[in-house]
Amino acid sequence: MTRLTVNNQPIQYALSPETPLAVALRDASNLTGTKIACSNGECGACTVDIDGRAVRSCAVTIASVEGSFVTTIEGLARDRDHPVQQAFLAGNVSQCGYCIPGLVMAAAVLIREVRDPDEAAIRRAMSHHCRCGIQPRLVEAVRRAAAIERGDETVAPVASPDIDARDAAKDVPALAAPKRLPRS
């Protein structure tokens, strides 16, 4: 059994010691915020905080991090109120959103280590592959998150809408069956 502390909870994985951490987190712990994309540590979608370091969890085995403290996006902040999460929401950073949890985790580690990161430091720490073109907004959001963390700036909390599926469906008109065109 491999033992870790994940989001402040002791976990014992009864998996092969060679299981990638990202797979253990997603499949065994149901922490699906950690995304798997490239499976070789290149893209960064699976980034988590391991003992205070931003680590691409698809590239490490559970055996290699035994005894470590792991924080995933689910454990970063209970109410999505971490400065990075608030800055990303306020700066409308997300496009497709797939790589955002990994970016948030890398940014959270960066601003904990570097109180006032410059653009070069941000780009080095955020070497993720995002195809959506968010890089300019990303750099600005990380700067803003660092300012919030230092107390130099505040941001009004951006609430995520909690939509009940029954309410969402009320205003959606029923779709009519498509009309068949006559054959020519």
Automatic annotation (TrEMBL):
InterPro entries: 2Fe-2S-bd, 2Fe-2S-bd_dom_sf, 2Fe-2S_ferredoxin-like_sf, 2Fe-2S_ferredoxin-type, 2Fe2S_fd_BS, Beta-grasp_dom_sf, Diverse_Oxidoreductases. SUPFAM superfamilies: 2Fe-2S ferredoxin-like (SSF54292), CO dehydrogenase ISP C-domain like (SSF47741). PANTHER family: BLR6218 PROTEIN (PTHR44379:SF2), OXIDOREDUCTASE WITH IRON-SULFUR SUBUNIT (PTHR44379). The keyword Oxidoreductase applies. It comes from Sphingomonas yantingensis. Residues 158-184 are annotated as: Disordered. Residues 1-76 form the 2Fe-2S ferredoxin-type domain. It is an enzyme of class 1 (oxidoreductase). The lineage of its organism: Bacteria, Pseudomonadati, Pseudomonadota, Alphaproteobacteria, Sphingomonadales. Its EC number is 1.3.99.16. This is Isoquinoline 1-oxidoreductase alpha subunit. Keywords: 2Fe-2S, Iron, Iron-sulfur, Metal-binding, Oxidoreductase. One of its GO terms (molecular function) is metal ion binding.
